[in-house]
Amino acid sequence: MLRSQSLIRPFDPTSVKMQEFYGLCGTKLNIAIAIIAGLDFALFGYDQGVMGGLLTLPSFLSLFPQINTQSPPPGWSSSRASNVQGITVAAYTLGCFFGAVATIWLGNFLGRKKTIFIGSSIMIVGAILQASSFSLEQLIAARLITGFGNGSFPFGTSFGGD
Questions:
Q1: What are the pLDDT digits (tens) for 41-50?
Q2: Short-list 85, 65, 79, CA closest to 140
Q3: Of these four, 30, 74, 78, 152, which has the most CB atoms within 10 Å of its CB?
Q4: Mean pLDDT of the chain, nearest integer
């Protein structure tokens, strides 16, 4: 037997203690991540779908008349209202793009778990801001924030272990 072979020991998985994250580790942590990731996936489609339905709701259009293409505000053309409506809807996707680009660097710095939790927290803040919007500017900013949180979600690695 070579001398160098005697120094190599087989790996014993029971000797390694799992690191906790927010009090969770192992299967419980993976379940928490799966639930948050699943909600994030669902919220992406839900947000886009709900916004499409809101665009024709009379109470929504009375609060945000700038996006009413049928009867735009005085001095506005239907084309201008349509552009503003498109910007409002696309703000979410634009936020997703910037969140995804930021995750290229932030994800390496923060790690997968922290990026998931921070991205979800940003989405919650953005959703609260959207729900409490009483001006078009706030709605657009809130959609950018929500999109940023969704885009910063590292989808490809959400369910794997560290």
A1: 777 777 777 8
A2: 85
A3: 152
A4: 82
Contact criterion met (CB below 8 Å) for 81 and 73: yes
- Residue from 101, 75, 89 nearest 143 by CA: 89
| SS3 state of residue 79 | helix
Give me the phi and psi of 137, to 5 degrees please.
Answer: -60, -45
Q: Is residue 78 part of a domain?
A: yes
pLDDT at site 161: 45
Structural domains counted in the chain: 1
Query: Is there a domain that residue 30 lies in?
Result: yes
- CA–CA separation, 6 vs 3, rounded Å? 6
Residue whose pair of structure tokens reads 């009867």 in the numeric block: 71
List the Cα angle 19/25/28 in 5-degree steps: 175
Is 32 contained in some domain?
Answer: yes
What sign does the CA torsion over 97, 136, 124, 117 have?
positive
For residues 110 and 46, give the distance between their C-alpha atoms in angstroms, rounded to a whole number.
28
